[in-house]
Write a structure and sequence with these properties.
7-stranded mixed beta sheet; two-stranded antiparallel ribbon; 13 helices; globular
């Protein structure tokens, strides 16, 4: 058993849980990168099943504190019984507001695992996966915002094309949008099966799965306003993270990874570089890993969903 698994099991044991939690992607690498101080204050911005949080709690001492953010009510079932942990039922785009509410001005470290959790993909009632026939929902917060069905049934053809092109990186976005608008006039989209029946699937299983993943990704990002939420969160870390504090972010697709890469290099998601009088690049961060960290072959074999994960770590100046 590797070090990562031993750390995870110890974290679960310390918090009195039953151990039935999915081991998070890049568990050991992300926690090592944060260099957690026993008496520090930290934020896990994507609590989910609580795996990363339990690993962080295992490294904190009695005076340490951890804030776990998640907008999904289902995550509350995974809250550890630990006086050092505070659960914040909120989107991480409101990071600074809730930290201030809890009396924290700055933290020593921030972790964000931006992927959709296995729980979401495997819950046929949530609509995140094309493997099940269920309602086209895709909301991370089931109590707020439009569903994927709302997007398909009400957005203009132009807006749908922009969504599929920008968020799904689909080359045939205009044709797909036109087809969706044509078909919804006869029958509104309600379920994942309705959507699958409307899509012109490419030949070959691998190409078909990639195409469907791109379509579902585009709708999910639109429904949850994911990229704007990520932008909002990253910008707040400039004032929330202490000098010398570290931030570790795990991404799963090129759009969000580009935001994080640019932000760590320049302090903004657009990647606009600024220089001082002498031509030195100005940036609020120092990269901890100059080369992006990816899962090992062992981890991918254990969890194929980790294949596209990328970890970037930076330290605040």
């Amino acid at each position: 058993m590797g070090d990562w698994a031993e750390q995870f099991e110890q974290a679960v044991k310390m918090n009195g849980e039953n151990g039935a939690y999915h081991i998070p992607v890049l568990f050991e690498e992300s926690l090592e990168g944060l260099q957690i101080r026993p008496d520090g204050v930290y934020a896990d911005l994507t609590f989910g099943g609580g795996g990363h949080s339990r690993g962080m709690l295992a490294r904190l001492g009695s005076r340490g504190r951890l804030y776990g953010f998640d907008q999904d009510a289902d995550a509350e079932a995974n809250i550890p019984t630990d006086g050092r942990f505070v659960f914040v039922r909120s989107n991480f785009r409101y990071l600074s507001n809730f930290l201030r509410y809890h009396g924290e001005t700055q933290v020593d470290g921030i972790l964000a695992d931006l992927g959709v959790s296995s729980h979401h993909f495997d819950d046929e009632t949530r609509g995140f996966s094309f493997r099940f026939d269920g309602a086209l929902d895709m909301r991370m917060n089931k109590c707020a915002g439009r569903t994927a069905a709302d997007v398909l049934n009400t957005c203009s053809e132009t807006a749908l094309a922009e969504c599929l092109s920008a968020y799904g990186e689909l080359k045939n976005a205009r044709r797909l949008a036109a087809r969706i608008v044509e078909l919804r006039a006869a029958k509104p989209f309600r379920t994942t099966e309705d959507l699958l029946a409307a899509l012109p699937l490419p030949a070959g299983r691998d190409r078909e799965r990639k195409f469907l993943a791109q379509v579902f990704q585009a709708l999910r990002i639109e429904v949850n306003d994911e990229l704007q939420a990520l932008r909002d969160m990253l910008e707040q870390t400039l004032r929330v993270l202490k000098p010398g504090g570290r931030m570790a972010v795990i991404t799963y697709h090129s759009l969000e990874d580009r935001f994080v890469k640019h932000f760590f290099r320049t302090g903004n998601v657009e990647g606009r570089g600024e220089q001082d009088f002498f031509g030195n690049r100005l940036t609020p961060f120092v990269p901890v890993n100059h080369k992006v960290i990816t899962p090992s072959e062992e981890e991918i074999a254990r969890n194929p969903r980790a294949r596209s994960a990328k970890l970037r770590i930076a330290e605040k100046k």
